Amino acid sequence: MQNLIAENGPVETAQMSLWVCSSLLALGVFLYRKRPRERLYAGWLGLVSALAAFREADGHILLNPEVLGSWGVRYRIDWWLSLDAPVLPRVMWAVVGIVIAVGLVAPLVKASPRAFLLIKGRDRAWWLFAIAAAALFVGYACDDLVGRGQFVAPIYSQSAEELSELVGALLFLLAIGLTVRLSLSTREKMAWERLKPA
Question: Where do the structural domains in the chain lie, given as residue ranges?
C-alpha cells in the first residue's frame, strides 16, 4: 500500500492524469459550444482542472527561488512582507495571483450556473461536481487537518488523502463528461422541468 500512495506513485500519477483529461475535455467543450455563457463555464472548468493538475504535479515547486532564482516565489507571508525580498518579483507574482483569482471567479459569476436549481432538480453533473468537491475536501482534511501523525498514523491519513483525491478527480472528470452531451442551459431547463408539479 505504501508504494501505491507514495509521492509521485501510481495513485498520484492517476490523479494527475485525470486532471489533465478533465482539462482537455473542458477545452473540447469550450471549443464545441458556441454560446458565450457555455464557453465561460467550460473555460472555468478547464482552468480549475489545469490548476489541480499543476498542483498534483507539484508545479508550485518549479516556481520557487531554488529553480527560478530571484524571480521565484515564496508562499509564506514573511517573504511577501519582507523588505529584503526583491520588489519586482513580488509585484509580478501578485499580478499572476490576481489574474488566476479573477480567472476563477469572473467566468463563474458571469456564467452564473443556477446551483440550487441544479441540485434540487437532480442534475447528475452538478451532483458529481458537489461529491467531487466533498471528496477533495476530505483529502485535504486528511492531510492538513488530521494527518501527518497529529491524530492518526500517517499511513492511514495519507491513504485516505490520496484515495479521496483520486475519487474527487475521477468524479470531476465524469461530471465534465456529462457537460459534453448537455449544455448548462439545457441541464437547467431539465432540472426546472423535474421540479414542476405533476
Answer: 2-57+113-195
Residue with cell 461536481: 129
Q: Give the pTM.
A: 0.86
Task: Kindly give the residue spans of alpha helices, DSSP state H, lying in 2-123.
Answer: 2-5, 10-32, 36-56, 65-68, 77-81, 87-111, 115-120
DSSP SS3 for 78? helix
- Other CB atoms within 10 Å distance of the CB of residue 122: 12
Helices H / strands E in the chain, number of each: 10, 0
Identify the CA nearest to 174 among candidates 121, 120, 118, 131.
131
Q: What is the pLDDT of residues 26-68, one digit of tens each?
A: 999 999 999 999 999 999 999 999 999 999 888 888 898 889 8
> How many other C-beta atoms lie within 10 A of the C-beta of residue 16?
19
Q: How far apart are CA 163 and CA 167, in angstroms?
A: 6
